[in-house]
Specification:
9 strands, mainly beta
């Protein structure tokens, strides 16, 4: 039986994405999102817990992050968990677990009046066309980046 490594989150960007380019010219975006949950404890007092998630996006999704994602914006993302390790200057082994984005949907309109920006999918080694959902009829169709009106 195969295993499953899948993450789905809805949260707010904690800062503007940091955009870099690899030596081979591949664009990569690093950003964090915050998710929260609220509940009432045994005494009926409202409690809140915030989690912060590091995200890396490649190719087309890095372009999307660079052009449309800003601190405070709400996003839906799907991806997989990946843990990297390295040795710090003192020789101590360090680890970082992050989400490698495979699909991102920007929630809310650019003006903040609701709606959505659309969505996009990509894997690190490829750039996929954007996908968007029409409100009527309810179906998905493939569009090119040039067809996006913003």
């Amino acid at each position: 039986m195969a295993s499953l490594n899948k993450v789905q989150l809805i949260g707010n960007l904690t800062a503007d994405p940091e955009i870099k380019e690899t030596p081979s010219g591949q664009k990569v975006a690093n950003f964090s999102i915050a998710t929260d949950r609220t509940w009432k404890d045994a005494n009926g007092v409202k409690q809140e817990q915030v989690e912060y998630h590091r995200v890396v996006a490649w190719g087309f999704l890095a372009d999307l992050a660079q052009n449309y994602m800003q601190k405070g914006k709400k996003v839906y993302l799907e991806g997989r968990l990946q843990t990297r390790s390295w040795d710090d200057p003192s020789g101590q082994k360090k680890y970082m677990t992050e989400i490698v984005a495979e699909n991102v949907i920007l929630l809310g309109s650019p003006t903040g009046s609701g709606g959505d920006y659309g969505s996009a999918s990509s894997a690190p080694a490829e750039v996929s066309p954007a996908k968007t959902r029409k409100s009527s009829p309810k179906q998905e169709e493939e569009i090119s980046v040039e067809d996006i009106p913003f």
